[in-house]
């Protein structure tokens, strides 16, 4: 199974998800998204495949989210994806991609449904 993890090694949840994937016998493709941010087109594709859409990809706990007004209910998917593309720290981590779908895996055990 092909698995990609958009990973932040400083995040405990991201490390836990990576451990769960590896415990399932899978060595994922790891993208350190703060060093190698996904393109705007990639973000749009992830949002399209995530059942919860662009909002699921947005890290609402990030201070910048409120500063940019992205926490308001009338913010569009386009605005969210543009903001994440411009500020990769706004990506809700970790985002996991498998043949079964795409999801921001918080809490960590939500990754099990994708494996």
TrEMBL record:
Its EC number is 1.20.4.1. The keyword Transmembrane does not apply. CDD domains: ArsC_ArsC. Keywords: Arsenical resistance, Oxidoreductase. It holds the Pfam family ArsC. PROSITE patterns: ARSC. The keyword Oxidoreductase applies. The gene is arsC. It comes from the Bacteria. This is Arsenate reductase. PANTHER family: ARSENATE REDUCTASE, ARSENATE REDUCTASE-RELATED. It catalyses: [glutaredoxin]-dithiol + arsenate + glutathione + H(+) = glutathionyl-S-S-[glutaredoxin] + arsenite + H2O. One of its GO terms (molecular function) is arsenate reductase (glutaredoxin) activity. GO terms for biological process: response to arsenic-containing substance. InterPro entries: Arsenate_reductase (IPR006659), Arsenate_reductase-like (IPR006660), Thioredoxin-like_sf (IPR036249). It is an enzyme of class 1 (oxidoreductase). It comes from Acetobacter garciniae. Belongs to the ArsC family.
